[in-house]
Structure formats: C-alpha cells, structure tokens
C-alpha cells in the first residue's frame, strides 16, 4: 500500500518507516524542507513537500494514498493552544480527504491524563471533545470519521516512548537531574508512569494500520506503570547524583512545566491491544534503558 505519513522523520516515525517498508508498503513522507526531504530519501521514503500548516498539500497527499499515518505534532509549549488548533485542522483535512473511501487514518494520541489515579484501558472513552482542549481534541475528531467511511484509528502512546536517542520526557528528567545535581520525585513517588520502547510502538503502529477496525483505540503501552521514585532512582544511579523527594509545591520551581505531569498517577493497560493484534512487546524496559546508557553516561 502507498502510505502518506506525517512525522516520518520524527522519533517514532523514523522507527515506523522501516516497519512499513519491511512489510512491503511504500511510504510517502511529509517534508518541510530540502534537508528533511533528503533524510527521507535516505530512509527509503518518497518525500512530499509541505507542512502541517499547508492543508492543500496534506489533502493532496492523503487523496493520492491508500491510507494515512499521522504522527507529527507541533510541540510548541509557548503556544500550545495554537498547536492544538493546527492539529485539529490537520486531522479534519486528512479525514475529509479519505471520507467515504474506507481507507485507514491512524492518528497519534496519548494515555497521559486519560484517567488519573486508576488504570486506563482502551475502553475508556475518548476525552476532550471541546475543540479548545489540548491537541485540539484531535482523537475524538479522528474517530468521528469512522461514521463517515474512514477506517480511523487512534493510537494512544505512553508518555515515555523510550530508547537510545530519546529526547522526550525521560531525557528532560535526566537533563534536570544533571543540571541540579539531584534526581527528584514528587511526594512519596508512588505515582506511576506507563512506558513503551520505541521499536515496540513502531511495530504496533503498523499492525494498527493494517488490521484495526474503524473507530478503534489502541494502547501503545509496554509497561503499565513505573513508580516515579524508581525512575528517579535509576537516573540517580546512572548519573551519580542523589535521589530525593520533593514537596509538590516546589515541583514547578524544580522541574518547570513538566512537574505538573510528573506528579500525576497515570497508569495505563494494553491488555486488549495485545489480544486483538497479537502484540507482544519485546524491547527493553525504561529502567533498563536508563541503566544501559540510552540517555548518556555520567
């Protein structure tokens, strides 16, 4: 199949591409610049010039494809509301381009904040139907196209998609620990974060694209919940800094904006996903990656 992909050169997308190519698919990737286009060509991807703000290019790319995988997102935390509006416009454009065709539209979402204090599952309803919600309520919008002849699928990723080269949340925690000379957690640190290895997540994206039913919700979660104190302890051991508890009122000063997320208890299961797609994560765990030097060495 010819698959139009946004974010093909990103952290998750660059692992999804070889999965798709190995399965015999052709990948067309959105490229914002000549440098991005050259990188995609090197990876075996046909570049498609455009950007998330170029809706005409996105529409044409989707219309010319047998299906779409949308992984890109503008992570501009200085204007997160604006990023959400962009995301909503992108999903609406892609959905309309595929309307009535039965072709797949796989959209990236997340489990963070889905439920707090209890295990989230694939059966938990899609949150944030308000267009002004985070990410523009794009998951709800994407799944609504199932009633309009699109095989739309939401892949909810764990907040930590880890592996060597990760520059996401765990990398931020490592950087803060090294800068401040202490690996901290909030309160008693019993609150849990789910995680998934990048390669396992990429494999699941392909399975979802090929097999998921219209309106399906898929959980890319390899580990249901790792206590944040254990994450801090692993960082402390690897980078030879002490580990300490931090009062919640001091979290923002120490961590910045990520402190609000680090203090949440957001475990998530992937039981139904594993059963439906015979998906069995085999990648290393988050603590193993930290100990194995995936985030550098002290």
TrEMBL record:
Regions annotated as coiled coil: none
Superkingdom to which the source organism belongs: Bacteria
Upper lineage: Bacteria, Bacillati, Actinomycetota, Actinomycetes, Micrococcales
Protein name according to UniProt: SDR family oxidoreductase
All copies of domain NAD-dependent epimerase/dehydratase, residue ranges: 4-214
